């Protein structure tokens, strides 16, 4: 399968893992022995864009403590190797000292260019993907209404329905994965904007004090 297809399978696994975690830990535990190898396999065949999506899934699992620290560390190692590069967080984004007084800031706020880039990336977010929305809305009624299972009269019709259900599951898993990544990005952007606003207020207060 192509890397993007394999990424969708990981989105599907993510959906199962997180939903089952609310009801019971069985699936989370069952996936643990293979999820590291899956990350390593997909990462080895993926470009930087695909690896970025993998990193988003990992960051969500870290934030929600889906797995224990030892498993999360193995996932980081599988994805980033010896580099141990983590997705850059808003705390790590540096700002020109001329834009803000560093002595008043517990963390370095983002630059304007970083905010613009983050906002531009959200323009293509899952929640605004009209094409996918239309595909989901157009899913066959057979995959939505279990009562229609009675229409299966032979092996061929059963196989056709099975394929439609599989395709629908992959579509929804991919969309759910993108939505989870979007939520993660929006939370990070909120923190970035909060830090940027704080910085600007401090900078303005400092200038007003000098004018007095």
Automatic annotation (TrEMBL):
- CID domain location, by residue? 1-83
PROSITE patterns noted in UniProt: CID
BP GO annotations: mRNA 3'-end processing
- Tell me the superkingdom of the source: Eukaryota
Pfam families in alphabetical order: CID, CREPT
GO molecular function terms noted in the UniProt entry: RNA polymerase II complex binding
Q: Which PANTHER family does the annotation name?
A: CYCLIN-DEPENDENT KINASE INHIBITOR-RELATED PROTEIN, REGULATION OF NUCLEAR PRE-MRNA DOMAIN-CONTAINING PROTEIN 1A
The entry sums up its family as follows:
Belongs to the UPF0400 (RTT103) family.
Q: What is this protein called?
A: RPR1A protein
Q: What is the lineage of its organism?
A: Eukaryota, Metazoa, Chordata, Craniata, Vertebrata
